[in-house]
Design a protein that fits this description.
Blueprint (H helix, E strand, L loop, with lengths): L1 E5 L26 E7 L2 H5 L2 H12 L3 E9 L2 H11 L5 E4 L8 H4 L19 E2 L2 E2 L1 E3 L1 E10 H6 L9 H14 L16 H10 L4 H4 L12 H14 L12 H10 L4 E5 L1 H13 L10 E4 L11 E6 L2 E4 L6 H14 L2 H4 L3 E2 L10 H7 L3 E4 L5 H10 L4 H9 L3 H17 L3
């Protein structure tokens, strides 16, 4: 039962200091009963994909009664509360909500499945030799754009400087399109601007390094430069008209039709435009090749530019699940035996599954340097949670503040106080 609760890139392999095992899938004879899986992929509930995957899973594990997949539309906003209350089902998705040294308090180790040795970013959720979560896939942040919208506006070449990007956006605005769709009200899409700060720094350990900085949002530092770019785009009127109302689903249709000319998100978003977006826009037989993808030109150097890359949400298992064998079998099946990662437009986290997104080839032609962020230190997670400077909602609230500079000063002060307690 699946329902909603609420409405070719080359990556360096991160070394994994955990025991290596051969892949060991649970014995079907030991897998039975039912579990609950919380997911953020509400679109794959709507289109029947989870029903298909469950049917395929039950063909391998005939004693399974039910996989109840529950979709949460505001997953990023709800998961921290659910972790605090224990309302996380049997299988769930996590990002960086839990400090590494506390992972074992919440989740089961996955080492016995033996798939972590063939995984990107397996050490992201590892501690003391145990791996507690595995990502669906890897994304690199970039500008996804509608080629026809750019052509209509008279833009013949992809911008390679920020001034060129703004000039292109002015042409797009004059043509009647939204130059860049920010989805400001939804909050979470703004996390790309956190990735942009890492790209500007060129340092995979940038976020951890901010623990030693009492003014990380200063205008001349990577965070400040990234926020300055976002504020500039907003103040210049280059985003969608309505920045106070959430319209994430509708915006996919805007990108497909050209009403929205671009957005700054990961490669995972491209397939959603080409499928859901085309349907929302009423476009039959949509040609996904109308969508392009290039690194964000964050300065006047002309590139090549750094592009932040990292894992998407990761699957984990509740440490208190009553059915660990079924939970592990389902997790391993979804990550290694289904087309979820390719369908979502990821570079699959499981390295034996090939990426299939053609826009990744275009992205590579600009010779970006992919910056793989290092796992957050427990102290960083604590400081972010304590200071409130954590995620897209915090970025949204900052750029919406009546006095931007005063708000930056307030965040810096809260950050400095929280960081001091961790030193």
């Amino acid at each position: 039962m699946n329902r909603l609760l609420a409405a070719g890139v080359s990556l360096a392999v991160v070394s994994l200091a955990v025991p290596a095992l051969a892949q060991t899938m649970p014995d079907p004879a030991n897998v039975s009963g039912k579990i609950v899986n919380y997911v953020h992929f509400t679109n794959y509930i709507d289109d029947g994909s989870y029903d298909r995957w469950e049917a395929e899973f039950k063909a391998l594990y005939p004693n399974v009664e039910d996989i109840e997949v529950l979709g949460i539309a505001d997953y990023a906003g709800q998961i921290a509360t659910r972790l605090a209350t224990g309302d996380i089902g049997d299988v769930l998705e996590i990002s960086d909500q839990v400090p590494a040294d506390e992972l074992g308090d919440f989740f089961l180790p996955l080492n016995d499945l033996g798939i972590h040795e063939d995984y990107y970013f397996a050490d992201r959720w590892a501690f003391d030799g145990n791996v507690y979560a595995l990502t669906f896939g890897v994304s690199a942040d970039g500008v996804v754009y509608n080629k026809e919208a750019f052509k209509t506006a008279g833009i013949e070449t992809v911008p390679t400087k920020f001034s060129e990007l703004k000039a292109a956006y002015e042409k797009l605005k004059a043509s009647g399109a939204y130059p860049i769709v920010l989805n400001l009200a939804d909050g979470w899409p703004l996390t790309s601007f956190e990735g942009l700060a890492t790209s500007i720094s060129g340092d995979p350990n940038f976020l951890n390094a901010t623990l030693e900085d009492d003014t990380p949002l200063a205008a001349d530092k990577p965070w400040g430069k990234s926020l300055g770019i976002l504020k500039d785009l907003i103040d210049s009127g280059l985003a969608e008209d309505d920045l106070s109302t959430g319209h994430w689903q509708d915006s996919k249709g805007w990108l497909a039709s050209g009403k929205g000319a671009s957005w700054f998100l990961g490669n995972w978003s491209i397939s959603q435009i080409a499928t859901e977006g085309a349907t929302l826009a009423g476009l039959d037989n949509y040609d996904a090749n109308n969508l392009g993808y290039f690194p964000f030109p964050y300065d006047e150097s002309g590139g090549p530019y750094n592009a932040s890359s990292g894992p998407d949400w990761a699957m984990a298992i509740n440490a208190n699940t009553a059915n660990p064998e079924l939970a592990k079998a389902w997790l391993a099946f979804i990550l290694t035996k289904t087309d979820l990662a390719q369908k979502a437009g990821f570079i699959p986290g499981y390295k034996k599954l090939p990426p299939t997104l053609p826009q990744l080839a275009e992205f590579q032609t600009y010779s970006p340097k992919l910056i793989e962020g290092t796992p957050p230190l427990p102290a960083l997670t604590n400081v972010r949670n304590t200071s409130g400077w954590n995620g897209g909602n915090a970025i949204r609230d900052l750029v919406n503040a009546p006095d931007f500079n005063a708000a930056v000063g307030d965040v810096n002060a809260k950050w400095a106080a929280a960081a001091a307690r961790e030193r």
